[in-house]
Amino acid sequence: MNSPDSGALGLIGNTPIIRLRKIVPDDAAEVWLKFEAGNPAGSYKDRVALSVLRNARNRGDISPGNTVVEYTGGSTGSSLAFVSAALGLKFVAVFSDAFSKSKQQTMEAFGAEVIVEKSHGEGITPALIQRMKDRAFSLSQNPDTYYADQFGSPDVILGYAPMGREIAEALGRNIDILCSSVGTGGAIMGTWQGLVDSGIKTDLVAFEPEQSPFLTTGKGGPHKVEGIGVGFEPPFLDRSVLSGVRTIDQDLGFAMCRRLAEQEGIFCGTSTGLNVVGAIELAKEMKPGNKVVTLACDSGLKYLDSQIYALNKTPH
Ligand SMILES: Cc1ncc(COP(=O)(O)O)c(C=O)c1O
To answer: How far apart are the C-alpha atoms of 63 and 61, rounded to whole Å?
Structure first.
């Protein structure tokens, strides 16, 4: 994948893993963050886009000049726009103004067409997600159009498995917990599969926003953490292998984003803030020397217009 011939696509994956040193108490377990913001379009969704579109091309399901369609909060969309551009495909995103404007601009920068469903100021709601889904599905019926299907394609899990193998290579066998918030559930399950492929068994803990506690209560709600808490059963999440699900207050996640930037120099998006709050909570329940791994899903650069980095700034 990393031959000079693969161009920008060769930059996907092989991201660093960083130990959080300043914001984790000394008497807690180690917390490690897989830094996926380092992918070219700024998130771990680059891995999904590459896997889905390359496998579709290899199967003969798409060819250059065809159109790819997906409904997206903008992370998968940015990655699909990037990989589509590199593979000579057109990309149409069904998006909403409930998500970061900068994600729309990123998709457009890669030449995508972006259709914006209005959220009417209600945030990310299950009804909005359903409207986006219906629109994308109807567009996918057009000729020479391929539905990327980030919520159903088996290529999603295949795309994330290398992330688990990279973590195993970097940290060795002694990983106690893999934990992460879930949207489709693809990242957590694919990464876990990669760890299993490397002979590593860890506990697996899923997080969701307290404001949209579908996994723990069966009912979603409006919230502001992009990419997760979708209000329906995450299609890739295998609950039978989960050790637990925890709800995390989104406001603690936003505050954690600012702490990560100011105290660790790690600039990430809102789901990462939630992941780190949850990972530290787990680490405090464990012993020093144990290892908790979580994911830095995407870059904070995508959220500069969302006020997360401006609200309640830590006083100096
Ligand atoms: C920023 C961000 N974080 C977390 C997730 C959740 O990842 P997954 O869908 O693999 O569960 C997504 C998915 O869109 C995302 O965009």
So the answer is: 7
Ligand 1 residue neighbourhood (C-beta within 6 Å): 43, 45, 73, 75-76, 181-187, 226-228, 269, 271, 297-298
Pairing of strands 113-117, 90-96: parallel
- 3-class DSSP state of 137: helix
User: The pTM is what?
Assistant: 0.93
Give the helix/strand (H/E) hosting 284. Answer: helix 270-284
User: Cβ(90)–Cβ(146) under 8 Å?
Assistant: no
pLDDT digits (tens, 9 = 90+) for 65-100: 999 999 999 999 999 999 999 999 999 999 999 998
Q: Are 275 and 179 in contact (CB under 8 A)?
A: yes
Element (H, E) at 19: strand 17-19
Distance 297 CA to ligand 1 centre (A): 7
pLDDT tens-place string over residues 241-280: 999 999 999 999 999 999 999 999 999 999 999 999 999 9
Structural domains of the chain ordered from first start: 4-38+157-303 (3.40.50.1100), 45-147 (3.40.50.1100)
User: Could you tell me the CA-to-CA distances from 56 to 52, 153, 289 in Å, in that order?
Assistant: 6, 10, 43
> Which residues on neighbouring strands pair with residue 180, listed in sequence order?
206
Q: Sign of the CA dihedral 10, 51, 167, 256? A: positive
| Strand partners of residue 147 | 69
Centre of ligand 1 to C-alpha 300, Å, is 14
